[in-house]
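Record type: monomer structure entry
Structure origin: computed from sequence
Chain ID: A
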Amino acid sequence: MINIKRTLEYIWIVLIILTIFAYLLGYLKLISTSLVGILLLTTLIKGALVSDYFMGLKDVSGKYRFIPIIWLSVIIILVGIAYYMPIPMTQ
């Protein structure tokens, strides 16, 4: 039981660090094209950690474990496509 608690504490610390990283990039206005990709990747990592450890899906069969990850991946890909699409200039 102590080992599980310690693992969850480490996962929680990683989630906090990734969240602070994303916040600081936005607050300091350090957003660039490459950093948006990194932010989307960290969002996917955070989603995977939450679904595996805090939703308890780490030890269940594959399809139930991957449904939230696939859903989140689709959303992140759509956000990435929307961000990287050029905006047409009209006169």
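Annotation 1: Helices lie at 2-27, 33-54, 62-84.
Annotation 2: Residues 2-27 form the longest helix (26 residues).
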